[in-house]
Amino acid sequence: MTFGRAESRPNATRFKSWWSNPWGKPRFLVLFTWAYILWSLVPVAIAVQFGFNEGRSRSAWQGFSLRWYVGDPNLSVLHDPSLRAALVQSLQLAALTMLIATPLGVALAIGLARWSGWGARPANFLMLFPLVTPEIVMGVALFLVFVHLFGFVRLGTMAQVLGHVTFTVSYVVIVVRGRLFSVGREYEEAAMDLGASRLQALRTVLLPMLAPAIWASLMVAFAISIDDFVISAFLMGDASSATIPVKLYSAARLAPSPAINALASILLFASMLAITIAILVMGRSRRREGAEGSAVEDFARLDL
């Protein structure tokens, strides 16, 4: 019996060493992570693939083509009026949102970071309130406000821009405040000790140091706005203000052509490009300053 126990121990040890990596982390966590990644990305890859299909089939591959992007004279994204209008509307909303929300978010981040008096903590908490509010609640609330309280704001592009800015400003504040905390107040105080006014210190010292976070905030605001569905749908007026997500939702149930896949692919590429630019800008700033961690981890915390 003693010999049998001694012989079984090496087998258990070998199994344990195979199942764990050299750092003591279980291999099943790695396998589970990759399984989840494949499960979530394979459907997206298939949808993107059939946007480049030569034929109309959305289940059988018939060859590579740009027909559904620019080639088909009637059904492609470029030539279909409704698809082209949705693309233009989404790009217009995203551009306006990032140009409005970013300056507001930068100003609020600086104000909240430098505010140390009474009410600073409640104000900081309320600034993050849109992040924890369900988006459908935000959409319904804005719809009711614009319809019953602020009647001069008509549903459509104007209401959508206001809704997107309201929802996006908090993300800009988070990005910029993270940069503010890493910079500190020493540079501003040194500039003011040398004779600069508070405004001059802000303009010539602080804002240039916040430039990477500002550029990243522009991209984050663009990415959040262009793929928003709930607020865009609630604040939409007529069909001319339909965005890409709204168009995809309405067309996906009606035997769509692969042009819908192409439109969804454009939305995906635009969002990925914006976030990639933001990560590269923040990563370059981190490397220049020798900071620890990575920009990818920072953006993962944003829960975009």
For this structure, what is the CATH class? Mainly Alpha
**What is the H-and-E element order?**
HHHHHHHHHHHHHH
Question: What is the terminal separation in angstroms?
Answer: 59 Å
Portion in beta strands:
under 5%
Rg value: 25 Å
| DSSP helical segment count | 14
CATH architecture: Orthogonal Bundle
Structural class: mainly alpha
The tally of structural domains comes to 1
CATH superfamily: MetI-like
Q: What sort of overall outline do the alpha carbons produce when their principal axes are compared?
A: globular
Query: Which fold does the CATH topology refer to?
Result: MetI-like fold
The pLDDT mean sits at 82
Keywords summarizing the entry:
transport; Putrescine transport system permease protein PotI; MetI-like fold; membrane; mainly alpha; MetI-like_sf
Protein described:
InterPro entries: Bact_Polyamine_Transport, MetI-like, MetI-like_sf. Keywords: Cell membrane, Membrane, Transmembrane, Transmembrane helix, Transport. Residues 87-281 form the ABC transmembrane type-1 domain. The chain is globular. With 304 residues, the protein is mainly α. It has helices at 2-19, 27-50, 67-71, 81-114, 120-127, 129-132, 135-149, 157-183, 186-193, 198-226, 230-234, 244-251, 258-289, 295-301.
